[in-house]
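Box 3.1 A note on notation
Throughout this textbook, protein chains are presented in two layers. The first layer is the amino acid sequence; the second is a token string describing backbone geometry. Keep the layers aligned when reading.
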Amino acid sequence: MTLPLILLCVFAALLELDTTYAFQTLLSRPIIAAPIFGWLTGDVAAGIQIGIFAELLFADVSPLGGIIPPSGVVASAVPLFLYVQGIELYFGFFLGVLGAVLYSFFDALLRKTRFKWLIFLEKRIGKKPSDITRIILITLLLSFLMSFVFISVLVWASSQLMFILYPYLPQQLHFSFRLAYMAVPWIGLAALIPIFRLKAR
């Protein structure tokens, strides 16, 4: 991976913290994150398109309570990472969505592991309250590192897979993925119609 693409993974991991762990400024929403990734990779228009499509796909899923939604950051970063390397957006988008779903399982596993660790930290903070800032910073750093590793491995594996398969993909598959990609915003809008109808009553 080149330095700009490594920086993209670093920035994606930072934005992933914004989803639930820190800040919560909504910068991690695909509609905002994807254009930023597009700017970093040199194609803002592709970033805007990915952002709109991913936002519509995940608009009705929020990280409330015990729900761990697919990662909008991963769904935004992966297609743009692949697009820079010559892979069409319609393939990258679906690999990004798959990666976003995988990240939700990864995050659930991390949260279960972290819960046991937090019990230990709670006792430590009870004995020495002045450690709380340092413990919070260490926890955020570990979350960032785990996200960075996941995103880096995912984009590397996705790019390697596509480099191997891309020359052998038939035109019918290109057409099918392109058609499915263009249907995504309509599927997202269809999912939102019942929500708007309920709010209007």
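The mean pLDDT is 83. The chain is about 80% helix and 0% strand.
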